[in-house]
Write a structure and sequence with these properties.
The chain is α/β, with parallel strands linked by helices. It is built from 7 helices and 5 strands. It has one domain. A hairpin with a 5-residue loop joins strand 3 and strand 4. About 25% of the residues are buried.
């Protein structure tokens, strides 16, 4: 008889724990793309742009225009929790939102080439190819990021563990593993950007507009 009572206690206590946990929302991950409007800057000389873009330009090439996008990775998290009656265990349901993108994104054209000129148009259109590369890469990795993060965090049921440890554990994992991972994925855009800045493309732009660009670089009106 004591064994029978013990078994009844186990049978009835486990569904109560499960039912309370199941009232929590399911864990989820949402990926939001940061798509700010472009800003334009024509304040710098081409020599200044060469200094700014020193790490990007090919040796011997002049930087007449530049596109810069700052990689942004930002996680926000809210976690609904339920504590068991003994105060030893908790159920937790993380709701994660990843905001990711290149912001701000600025297109620079050297001030030697005034807006409306043929040279400005050529340089500007070249830089828009870089803008498109940023935007295309962001769209391309959106699904990959969502699938990878959902596989890890959207487990279909609340997490269970010692009281007070779930939120800190999730934040630590985001900081140490997932923020670096997303930054690496954003950084892969550099390969696409390099395909735009070929020696042939540099030569084409520099030689366009009947020598207008070369004259601008020499300071000739």
């Amino acid at each position: 008889m004591p064994i029978f009572c013990f078994l009844l206690l186990v049978v009835f206590s486990r569904p109560i724990w499960a039912d309370e946990c199941e009232q929590l929302p399911k864990p989820s991950v949402t990926v939001k793309l940061i798509e700010d409007s472009l800003t334009f800057n024509t304040q710098y000389s081409y020599k200044s742009l060469n200094n700014i873009g020193a790490g990007l330009a090919r040796p011997g090439q002049q930087v007449l225009g530049l596109t810069r996008g700052n990689a942004i990775v930002r996680f926000s998290a809210s976690t609904a929790t339920y504590l068991d009656r003994a105060g030893r265990w908790e159920c937790a349901s993380p709701q994660l939102v990843l905001s990711v993108g290149y912001s701000p994104m600025t297109v620079y054209v050297a001030r030697e080439f005034p807006e409306g000129s043929c040279a400005y148009k050529e340089i500007y259109e070249h830089e828009l190819r870089h803008v498109k590369a940023y935007q295309s890469h962001l769209k391309a990795i959106e699904k990959v990021l969502a699938e990878t993060l959902n596989q890890r965090f959207a487990t279909g049921a609340p997490w269970r563990g010692p009281v007070g440890q779930t939120v800190a554990s999730i934040q630590r994992e985001l900081d140490e593993r997932w923020i670096p991972y997303v930054k690496r994925e954003l950084g892969r855009v550099d390969a696409a950007q390099a395909l735009i800045d070929t020696p042939e493309e540099y030569a084409r732009v520099a030689g366009s507009c009947g020598g207008e660009i070369k004259k601008g670089m020499r300071g000739v009106p």
